Amino acid sequence: MSPSVVEGVLVVDKPAGPTSHDVVARVRGLFSTRRVGHAGTLDPPATGVLLVGLGRATRLMRFLQSLEKVYAATVVFGTSTTTQDATGEVVERRPCTFTEETLRAEVRRFVGDIEQVPPMVSAVKVGGEPLHRAARRGEVVDRPPRRIRIHDLTIESYDPAAQTADIRVRCSSGTYVRTLASDLGDRLGCGAHLAALRRLAIGSFPVSEATTLGALESMERAERQQAVLPMAAALRDFPSVTVEGRSLEGVRNGRPIDAPAAAPEGPAGPEGLAAPEGLAAAAGAVAVLDPAGELIAVYEPWTEGGEAGDPPGRLRPAAVLAAATEAVAPSR
User: How big is the CA angle at 211 (ends 28 and 14), to the nearest 5 degrees?
Assistant: First the structure.
């Protein structure tokens, strides 16, 4: 990394209150750089892992977005809200008559591939417009269900007097945990909403590796830069291939390359929860490195519908990373 350019990925422990975009704005100010983006939006009340890309690493966010997530959440049964969480208005209260045994049995029904209707208060677009905009106008839009995968869903604790449960979820990208809580409440016949949510991990990036905004603000410039993961390390959940010589020049010019003979398994996730096949299999992306171990591109397999003569077993560029040229103002 050039002394004048800060680029890579920050693992941030987002606090409750600010939006994910607010976190991006604060990181932009701390590093005095315009190019900042994030992967995996967290609602304002939610806390935990938020991956923030700086400089050229903003182009990696869509790949990191595909990684599975791990959450800890608190569900309140018997009360449904307009937003499926504690920020919304109460729309219905119903008595809870289920037993803990019934709760645990219903939870098991959600594990696997399921369909989930995204909530109205979300960034999902229907007809080109984010649902949350229609929700602010008081509209309810028909939205098709989306297929997601729940790898694990466990009850960590249950309080029958308060009718609350602490749950742990390992799920695919695109899963709404508040919708999961609401659907679980409907299956139990009493409704439910999400009272608290904390993201424990994205792929193999656990919250124990994350840095708080307060800690970043208290650091000196050099220490703050050391908290930024290099781009190659940021793609550690993906298989990689090293190229050199003519192949290296070909990658820099966006030419296709041969796929690795055997893609290595990704690392186990936090506390062994993330299965290797869940890390990068969905995206199919491959990190392409130069002999020094620097990330120079991200490639993907050829897909159907490409140009005539697309070669099988080859990879084509999804993101070729040009040399960093952005000048950075002095850090405050």
Answer: 70
The pTM is what? 0.85
Smallest Cα–Cα separation from 122: which of 136, 111, 109? 136
Catalytic residue among 43, 85, 183, 237: 43
| Residue 161 structural domain | 69-202
Does residue 102 lie within any of the structural domains? yes
Shared domain check, 295 and 264: yes
List % helix, strand, coil for the chain (3-state, nearest 5): 25, 30, 45
Q: Of 143, 173, 202, at which residue does a domain stop?
A: 202
pLDDT, one tens digit per residue, over 174-224 is 999 999 999 999 999 999 999 999 999 999 999 999 999 999 999 999 999
Strands (E), 125-275: 125-126, 129-130, 146-159, 164-171, 192-202, 205-206, 211-212, 240-242, 257-258
- 211 and 62 within one domain: yes
Residue 258 is classified by DSSP as E
Looking at the structure, tell me whether residues 259 and 273 fall in a common domain: yes
- Residue 172 to residue 162: CA distance in whole angstroms: 30
Of 5-9, 55-59, 81-85, 119-123, the least confident: 119-123
- How far apart are the C-alpha atoms of 273 and 182, rounded to whole Å? 24
Catalytic residue list contains 43: yes
Please check whether residue 3 lies inside any domain of the structure: no
- For the domain that residue 252 is a member of, what is the CATH number? 2.30.130.10
104-161 pLDDT per residue, tens: 999 999 999 999 987 656 555 555 655 556 456 565 656 678 899 999 999 999 999 9
Domain count along the chain = 2
